[in-house]
Structures are given as C-alpha cells and as structure tokens.
Amino acid sequence: MSMREVFHRPEALADVATHYCPGCDHGIVHRLVAEAIDELGVRDSTIGVAPVGCAVFAYNYWSVDMVQAAHGRAPAVATGIKRVRPNDTVFTYQGDGDLAAIGTAEIVHAAARRENITVIFINNSVYGMTSGQMAPTTLLGQVTTTTPGGRDPQRHGFPIRVTELLNALEGPVYLARTAVNTPKNLNVTKKAIRAAFECQIKGQGFSLVEVLSTCPSAWGLNPVECVGWLENNLIPHYPLGVVREPAATPKEEVAVGAR
Amino acid sequence: MKILMEGNEAIAEAAVRAGCRAYFGYPITPQTQIIEYLAKRMPEVGGVVLQAESEVASINMVYGAAAAGARVMTSSSSPGISLMCEGLSYLAGAELPCLIVNVMRAGPGLGGILPSQADYWQATRGGGHGGYRSLVLAPSSVQECVDLMKLGFDKADEYRNPVLILADGLLGQMMEPVELPELCETSSANKPWAATGLHGRSHHNIINSLDTVPERLERHCLHLEDKYRQIASAEVRHETFGDSDARVVVVAYGTVARIVRSAVERARAEGMKVAMVRPISLWPFPSVGIDEASKAAERMLVVEMNAGQMVDDVRLAVHDRVPVRFYGRQGGMVCSVREVFEQIVALYKEVPEYVHA
C-alpha cells in the first residue's frame, strides 16, 4: 500500500518551534502566509518585516529574508525596502497595538501612497506581549489590565476599525477582514492573504488583510472559550469581508512601487 | 572645474555622485533644498526620492532601504533629528550603514531657523537610547560638505554604522565655489548580510537589533564596543593652524572655525602666539591633536554657537591641565571676528609674562 503525503510544512515556514501560547492564532496565520508565498512561487524574492509585539520573533519563523522593525514602523521600513527593491515581494506582519496605536501614521500613509506592499494585520483586541493592556481595538466594556472596570468610552474612547478607516482612503487596492475561527474562515483567510500578495505581485498596490485572532492568555479564557468569545464579541463589532478589491480601482491609476 | 553652489544643493549633488540612490526625508528649514534638489536630480540617475509623512517615518524608510543593501540617506534639521533618534538607535543596533545630514538650527524646542551648533551633545553622545556611537563629521565649507559626503557613505559601509554630517544652517544656505567628484555607482552585491531576498541563497538573512538572551546581547554589545574602538582609533580627523608654541589655543568646528581662524590670524599678525584646532570628526574627537597643540598653552578657548558643549571634550582632551574658557553665541546669533579676537586678547592678558603691548 502506498502512502500519500496530505500535509506538510510549507517551504516558506521555518522548521522551528514558535514561542506562541497554546490557542493563539499567530501560528495558523504564519502558516497561511507561508502557504501563499509558496503557492505564488515568491519565496526566493520575498522580504518580510516583523513588528514589535507577540510576533516580534516572526523573523525566525519564515524562511525568507526578514527585517525587524521598531514598534509601529513596519510600513515605513517596508516602504524603504520596496522602493529600493521594487521587483521583490515585501510584507509586514503587525498586531493591533503596533499598527493601530503607535504606528497609525505609518500605516495610514503607506496605504494613502498605495505603497506596493502587503500588510498582514492581527487584531486580537489587546496588547498580548505586555500581557493584556487596552489596545486601540479593545471593545467597549472589555476588561484589560489598564481598563480593570471595562473600557469606558468616557475615559478611554472608542475602538478603531482599521479596515474601514483605511477604506476611506483612495490609496488601498485590497482590504479585507477575516478570522480563523472555523475551517471555512480559515480557507477564506488563506484566499484573502493570497489575493493580497497577488495584488502586490501584479504591481497593483497596497493590500491589507486584517485577521481577527484569539489571545487566551490576555483574555483569561481557554482556547475553546476564546473561539466563542471571538464569535460573540469581536466579529459583531468587526464585520468580516472583502471591502476593497483591485476591480474597484480605476485602471488608469498605477501603483507607485511598480516601476 | 569649480562651480558656484549653495551648501544644501552641494550636499545633495555630492550624495548622488557618491552613489546614493535612495533618499527619504521630510521638509524642515534650513535644509529643505536638499529634498527639493534631489526630487529633480534622483530620477536622472534612476534613484528614489520619497517625501515621508514625518521624520519618524523617514528614518525608518532609511532603515528599510539600508537593510535591503541600498546606499541611502536622509537629512533634516535639529527638531527633525530628535524625532529620528529612535530610528538611529535601531540602525546602530542592527548595524545598518546610512548617512544622516543635520543642518543645525537654534533650539531648544522649535527654537529658530537660524544657524546653531546646539546639537553637538545629541550627535556625539548618540541621541537615542541604548548606548551607541555614530561617526560624526563636521564640515566648515561647502567644499568640505561635498568631500565629507563621499567619505561618510564609504565609512558607513565600511563599519556598517550610521554616519552623521553635522553642519550648521550657515553652511546649508551659503554659496561657495565647489569642485564636484565624478559620479559613481554602488551595489548591494558587496553586502552579503543584507535582506535582499534569497535569490538562490540558502540561508535567510535577518536584520535585527533584538536579543532577549542576555549572554548573547552582551556579546553583541561588546562587538559594537570593539567596532567603536576601531573607529575611534582610525577615524579621527582634525586640522591645526598657527604657532606650535602657542600660549592660547582656540578650538572651534564648522562655520565658526572660519571666523575663529580670521581672529587667530589677526592675533598672530599683532605678535601673539596663538593656534587653533578645528575638529573635523566630532566623534571620534581629536583629543590627542588638541592635547599636542596645547603643550605650551597657558589658556584654551572654545568657541561654539551654543552655551558650551564641545568645551567638555576639550577639557577632557587637555585633562584640565590648562584652563579652558568658553565663548558662545546662541539663538541663531553668529559671533564676529572682532568678538573672538577680543576674547583671545583678554585670555592673553591673563598670562602676565606674555602681555601683549
């Protein structure tokens, strides 16, 4: 009887153990990014940018050239790389504290410039690395270590919907929000990540996929409970779907990085 | 052939000729002509110019381009350099070569737009966190701006370290005849460490300043320290002028050094034994050169466009063996030859046996 391989590690995923907590979605999304890189045949010409936050060690997890960026600055770093290596594929991988708080200016302007890069944005509604403080994406009423009585709009303001915020700009070419809570959504996320990279490879311009993710450690829930909390709380506030696709972009406009 | 050029434009053209093909910056007086010039010039040589959303973004774009192996620069003026200090620390930590021009204006805060040298401490002590060094070069003419650009880029690559060109607003705005070098090209091929994409390479390159294992991070810090020691022993540059047995030695850099030189010439013409030392590298500091020039000195004078910053390094250089006095102007005010001359005369008179008739 012959054996058929049905599951293997993508080549773009490094053969190392990650440091992520049990039940954390980072590992899943790392794999999806690696699968997309493999399938598109760009592993040899991809440069990734790692953030500050839980994914700070991501430079060890993909077997492509990697650059570690200061907190929030990944889109600027990726811009610098892409502008001097326009034929290579450049992506950032950032969390919500990194991208939506300290790095708000960098992500907004990279998107507005239609910088031809791909951004994978992990939204788990808390600062995971520093163990559970309020993020710009923390829901109203959500308890964190810096909102012990729950996020109060009078004192802490309101959560930011990054995908919708960027959708107000002309620059972005591909914008989607997904989750990896079910096998179906996992496939949808994979397709979105692949579409985002394709957008860049075709020279169309800025693409971002926001992935709603779990954080068992900071949420104080077990991995199974986390899935339920994500479905009952995060998804209703952060609706899933593709909000911007290349077809919606007028043809005469060309990506700046695509010379 | 010499041509007449403004300092900022000469800096920009010198960058292109030194093989720089990537510039990221943000407008700020008195150096905005650099990005304006390059916006026209870079496309002619196939280079990249990008106006960023802030100095914070500029320096991180520089970080990215340097990580990817490009010969890259940015320029700014004092308040903008403060914003870049985070990125500078990362560049130093990750050992990325790049060139940063600071055309200094008066501070603190928003200060003013006129010339100053008040960023000496920031430049020579690092500016950002974590304890690192940048090679700091201080031109005193438009020609020297041009010459130090090429040298700066080469040294940045040689040591895999940021290099700062510390110029004052006068240099950026004044026009002088300059001789420009030939146009040269560089490539990332001689940077095997760079994140250029694998393109057939078997191991992946990682550009990084993080290490959470203290034993390893200490090794990295010791490696940096060793590199800084090498720079300190090999890259000291200064110029000496005047009497080898000078009783008064004046130390000044940048545009101020030219004013000081005129004052020293006048003092010597009147029979005083005076010399001057002009540091060209501010870090590493020409301590030995200053010490040697002051062997017979009774008094030292440091002239700066600030409240006294380099004066600390001069005191260290002469081990306080000689009294070190300071004269400075601030807020965009520039000292005159007469003011400096009067300072020299006053110091000369403090040494009884050498009272000037």
Written account of the structure:
The complex is a heterodimer of chains A (259) and B (357). Helix content of chain A is 34%, strand content 16%. With 259 residues, chain A is of the alpha/beta class. Chain A has a single domain, classed as Rossmann fold. In chain A, the strands form two sheets. In chain A, strands 2-1-3-4-8-7-9 form a seven-stranded mixed beta sheet, sandwiched between helices. Chain A has a two-stranded antiparallel sheet with strand order 5-6. In chain B, the strands form three sheets. Chain B has a seven-stranded mixed beta sheet, sandwiched between helices. A five-stranded mixed beta sheet of chain B has the order 10-12-11-14-15, with helices on both faces. A two-stranded antiparallel ribbon of chain B has the order 1-8. In chain B, β11, α9 and β12 form a beta-alpha-beta unit. At the A-B interface, β1, β2, α2 and α4 of A face α3, α4 and β9 of B.
Secondary structure topology:
The complex is a heterodimer of chains A (259) and B (357).
Chain A: H1 26-39, E1 46-50, E2 65-68, H2 74-84, E3 89-95, H3 96-102, H4 104-112, E4 118-123, E5 126-127, E6 133-134, H5 153-156, H6 162-167, E7 174-179, H7 183-201, E8 207-212, H8 216-219, H9 223-237, E9 241-244
Helix pairs in contact in A: 1-7, 3-4
Chain B: E1 2-6, H1 7-17, E2 22-25, H2 33-41, E3 48-51, H3 55-67, E4 72-76, H4 78-93, E5 98-104, H5 120-125, E6 135-137, H6 142-159, E7 162-168, H7 169-173, E8 175-179, E9 206-207, H8 214-234, E10 238-242, E11 248-251, H9 254-269, E12 274-279, E13 281-283, H10 287-293, E14 299-304, H11 310-317, E15 324-328, H12 337-349
Parallel strand pairs in B: 2-3, 2-4, 4-5, 5-7, 6-7, 11-12, 11-14, 14-15
Antiparallel strand pairs in B: 1-8, 6-13, 10-12
Helix pairs in contact in B: 1-2, 1-6, 3-4, 9-12, 10-11
> How many strands in all of chain A?
9
How many distinct domains of chain A?
A: 1
Number of helices of chain B: 12
> What gap, in angstroms, lies between the N and C termini of chain B?
46 Å
Instruction: Give the CATH class of chain A.
Output: Alpha Beta
Rg of chain B (C-alpha, Å): 21 Å
Q: Uncertain runs of chain B with pLDDT below 50, 5 residues or more?
A: none
Cα-to-Cα separation, first versus last residue of chain A? 53 Å
Whole-number count of domains of chain B: 2
Say which CATH homologous superfamily of chain A is assigned.
Thiamin diphosphate (ThDP)-binding fold, Pyr/PP domains
In sequence order, what are the helices and strands of chain B, one letter per element? EHEHEHEHEHEHEHEEHEEHEEHEHEH
